[in-house]
């Protein structure tokens, strides 16, 4: 705008009226949308307004092209943001499902560690020499000791196999004693489950007795 003013001053050109440029759609530097709308709505009839709208949207003037271009950019922007929003929602849903699966895995891993710890403690107690007054047995909690109880046949079989391997070069009686001591520590709890009709308890008990036979 400053360059145009300097050119007018240099060539002594007349300065156009400010009001004319405020209503000229092709003069973006001085165009005033509010003045244009006020003037057009107060002087034009409804058919003229509709005709002017069609000219602005479908015409060939620079302003019409800019309007169509801006409208296309607006639609493209809305479309792109809509897809980005959908992608973000899918990503959040996948992350949430993976986090829930991870929580389940962590809970199962925690239970497995507790079971291993309980079986290790029971094995250690079974390996200790008997004393005059054996310590009281801990109360059986189904929620805590269920996994350890279900793993009892595997542990008994492992102790006996270990004893058989040692027996090839020596006495395997200590391993058998550990297995029978472990069974004696857990057998009352398992029998209470069998008497209570807990599903699967009788099969576990039968497998343990078959291993020790």
UniProtKB/TrEMBL annotation:
It holds the Pfam family VPS51_Exo84_N. Residues 120-130 have a biased composition (Low complexity). Component of the Golgi-associated retrograde protein (GARP) complex. This is Vacuolar protein sorting-associated protein 51 homolog. Belongs to the VPS51 family. It comes from Rhodotorula diobovata. Keywords: Golgi apparatus, Lipid transport, Protein transport, Transport. GO terms for biological process: endocytic recycling; Golgi organization; Golgi vesicle transport; lipid transport; protein transport; retrograde transport, endosome to Golgi. It is found in: Golgi apparatus, trans-Golgi network. Transmembrane segments: none annotated. PANTHER family: VACUOLAR PROTEIN SORTING-ASSOCIATED PROTEIN 51 HOMOLOG. The keyword Transport applies. Acts as component of the GARP complex that is involved in retrograde transport from early and late endosomes to the trans-Golgi network (TGN). Coiled coil: none annotated. The keyword Protease does not apply. Residues 120-139 are annotated as: Disordered. GO terms for cellular component: cytosol; EARP complex; GARP complex; membrane.
């Amino acid at each position: 705008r400053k360059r145009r003013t300097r050119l007018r001053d240099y060539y002594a050109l007349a300065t156009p009226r400010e009001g004319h440029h405020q209503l000229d759609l092709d003069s973006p530097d001085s165009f005033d949308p509010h003045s244009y709308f006020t003037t057009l709505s107060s002087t034009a009839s409804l058919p003229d307004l509709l005709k002017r709208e069609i000219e602005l949207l479908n015409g060939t003037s620079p302003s019409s092209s800019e309007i169509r271009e801006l409208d296309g950019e607006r639609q493209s922007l809305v479309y792109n943001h809509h897809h980005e929003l959908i992608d973000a929602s899918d990503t959040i849903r996948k992350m949430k499902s993976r986090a829930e699966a991870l929580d389940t895995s962590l809970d199962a891993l925690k239970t497995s560690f507790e079971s291993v710890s309980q079986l290790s403690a029971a094995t250690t107690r079974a390996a200790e020499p008997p004393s005059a007054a054996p310590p009281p047995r801990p109360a059986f909690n189904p929620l805590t000791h269920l996994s350890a109880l279900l793993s009892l046949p595997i542990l008994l079989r492992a102790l006996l196999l270990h004893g058989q391997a040692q027996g090839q070069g020596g006495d395997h009686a200590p391993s058998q004693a550990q297995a029978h001591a472990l069974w004696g520590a857990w057998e009352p709890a398992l029998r209470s489950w069998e008497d209570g009709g807990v599903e699967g308890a009788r099969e576990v008990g039968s497998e343990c007795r078959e291993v020790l036979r």
